[in-house]
Amino acid sequence: MIGVIDYGAGNLGSVMNALRRLNTPARFVRGPEDMRGFEKIIFPGDGHFATAMSSLEKSGYASALKEWIQADKPFLGICIGLQLLFEASEEAPPVDGRATPGLSIVSGTVRRFPGRKVPQIGWNNTKARPSSRLFKGLPENSFFYYIHSFYADPDDDAVVAAEADYYLTYCSAVERGALCAVQFHPEKSGATGLKLLENWTL
User: Fold this and answer.
1) Of 62, 99, 177, 194, whose CA is between 20 and 30 Å from 106?
2) Cα–Cα distance measured from residue 54 to residue 50, given in angstroms and rounded to the nearest whole number
3) What is the DSSP string of 63-75?
């Protein structure tokens, strides 16, 4: 059974609809203590880095997610679910000298696109690494749907599973063990997105 984290934000309905189309059993996770009953976890979402982290800390999800990922259990982060894995974000600059840390599971920083036309909204060509499990069976350059103003900049290039171009070439997906995360929205990316989700569920 797949659990979809419900922390009060995110495209929960569209993710569940995509899983139904794949005939994949899934239900919402209603709290951190509920995570124990699942084999795999999806953390979808959109929104502000600091607001999302505050919600995770207050609800207890922050420590539960760290424990899950450190145990190398299957995890898929989508959009903000990718960005929150990092140590910090330029979307949440220090206030009164205090920074807003992310989950700090992946070393690196989330940065703002350098150009004026942000957010990036729409379909973008995504170049996957040949070794990626998520993109197995997909065309070498597949299009996925994006909407974001910030991008992940990992310290270690080895975690990068795919890249896209928008003002610069940036990391659009990461893989490390059972940890996977994507900047785009597979649940809104038609048949290509469904294939990627299917790859993750297998």
Assistant:
1) 194
2) 6
3) HHHHHHHHTT--E
What does the domain layout of the chain look like in residue ranges? 2-201
39 given a catalytic annotation:
no
What are φ and ψ of residue 106, in 5° steps?
-115, 130
Which CATH class for the 2-201 domain? alpha beta
Six-digit token string for 45? 């979402």
Q: Exactly one of 91, 175, 187, 198 is catalytic; which is it?
A: 187
Going by C-alpha positions, the residue among 112, 52, 120, 119 that lies closest to residue 85 is 52
Q: Among residues 79, 148, 171, 180, which one is catalytic?
A: 79
**Which residue out of 91, 171, 175, 185 is catalytically annotated?**
185
The full DSSP string for 84-131 is TTEEEETTS--BTTB------SEEEEEEE-SSSS-SEEEEEEEEE-TT
pLDDT tens-digit readout, 66-81: 999 999 999 999 999 9
Q: What is the pLDDT of residues 116-131, one digit of tens each?
A: 999 999 999 999 999 9
Q: Is 185 a catalytic residue?
A: yes
To the query of whether residue 187 is one of the catalytic residues in this protein, the response is yes
